[in-house]
Sequence to fold (200 residues):
Amino acid sequence: MYQLPLLQYEYDALEPYIDAATMKIHHTKHHQGYVTKLNDALEPYPELAKKSIEDLLQSLDSVPEEIRVAVRRNAGGHHNHSLFWMNMMPNGGGGTGGQLAQAITDSFGDFSTFKNEFNSAALSVFGSGWAWLIKDADNKLKIITTHNQDSPLMEGVRPILGLDIWEHAYYLNYQNRRPEYVDAWWNVINWEQVEKNFNS
Ligand code: MN
Fold:
């Protein structure tokens, strides 16, 4: 059985950038919903339920067709949100150092160009989806977007930083003002965790 991970901070810890009500509903209703539906879908397939969430998403072709859509949506939702919570923290933001900073410079020129390109990608998604910084098989960084709850793992690349741009992630506080939410989110990024994701 997959389980909802606990947050490493309180629901109000990311205010004023992300409000407590949004965080609580997002974690206890939306993320919990993906976990519950994933477990329900896999109940008749105990051998699949033993796989790690990463394995499951990297081998969707081997999932029986009758549950493949449910697994794609809900395993994706579970993994995406687990990464999202970990990549945020109170008093976060700033920038990064070390090998990740070098890789950002190598791939994008400088940090502010990376930030601009990431924001443009996040604003370009029509409907529900995610913006990602990913590491490809050659350890190169790229910015990609996915629709719905699709995971970069399904494309064979590793997500190291992700931004949820479903309306449920910001609508209570920002309504239709997605650009304000995207800008605010940079103040709560846990760069130490993003570096760990990059180096793993
Ligand atoms: Mn979400």
In short: The domain at 20-86 is CATH 1.10.287.990 (Helix Hairpins). The radius of gyration is 17 Å.
